[in-house]
Amino acid sequence: MEVRTKTTERELTIGLRGELDHHSAREVVTAMERAADAALPSSLVMDFGGVTFMDSSGIAVVMRAERRMCALGGSLVLVNVPQQARRVFDAAGISAHVRMEGPPDQA
Amino acid sequence: MKVKPDNYIALEFLSRSANEGFARTATAAFAAQLDPTLDELGDIKTAVSEAVTNAIVHAYPDALGKISLRASIFDGNLLEIVVRDWGCGIADVDRAREPLYTTGGEERSGMGFTIMESFMDSLSVRSRQGKGTVVTMKRRISQRAGRK
After folding, report:
1. N or C: less crowded end of chain A, CB within 10 Å?
2. A30 to chain B: nearest residue by CA?
3. What's the pLDDT tens digit per position in B22-70?
């Protein structure tokens, strides 16, 4: 899994590419925590546009991101969530309390 | 009397997390002969990923062990997937199946069984402590118009 992080002002964007499962989740969490430590963002954008597969490991990653942003008093938004990942979020009831939007430029 | 499948595959692999992707991709490739929709294929891959990850994380917490996966096709476009391990077993299956319940720490969401249940038509979990766990999932694939 490829993880790209970008910080603009206090907005941290994490771009994910590849398959997000138990095998790859740890490197995503490590990269996310490191970037959040450095940026102390007021807004975290997780871009799922390149995610070709996701299972419940992705839910744990998002729950972790949510706790982190809650502690920082900031916001979390998921963008470009593909259909397969969306079905997993829906089945877990995550979609109801985490913000999801389309492409960032259309939000 | 046991009904014989029209077709099946059987895989055996070590409980390394690198095999999660292999197991779901191989199962999806086998299921492709049923001409599933993209959503159906995604659901099958996700359910397999959850079952195999459970075996890798929970059945053999401090060691590597054997996991087997058998996918069978029965009459009427029925896909059955059986994931078996010979690990430590689940002390309380009903509790393990509850949403958000996990013994896997914050790396796990506790939603694995919930997702298997919601993506498959049926899910059965048999487990004996010290002996292992067998997860059986079934999903009937829609017969699409124009399908041969």
Report:
1. C
2. B107
3. 999 999 999 999 999 999 999 999 999 999 999 999 999 889 999 999 9
Structural domain tally of chain B? 1
pTM: 0.93
Contact B107 A25 (CB under 8 A): yes
Catalytic choice (B108, B117, B126, B140): B108
CA nearest neighbour of B43 among A50, A18, A53? A53
Q: Choosing from B20, B24, B40, B50, which is the catalytic residue?
A: B50
Using a 10 angstrom Cβ sphere, with 0-12 exposed, 13-18 middle and 19 or more buried, the burial of residue B55 is: buried
Q: Is residue B146 part of a domain?
A: no
Do the strands B78-85 and B132-140 form a parallel or antiparallel pair, or are they unpaired? antiparallel
Q: Is residue B1 part of a domain?
A: no
pLDDT at B101 (0 to 100): 82
Residue B106: give its domain's CATH number: 3.30.565.10
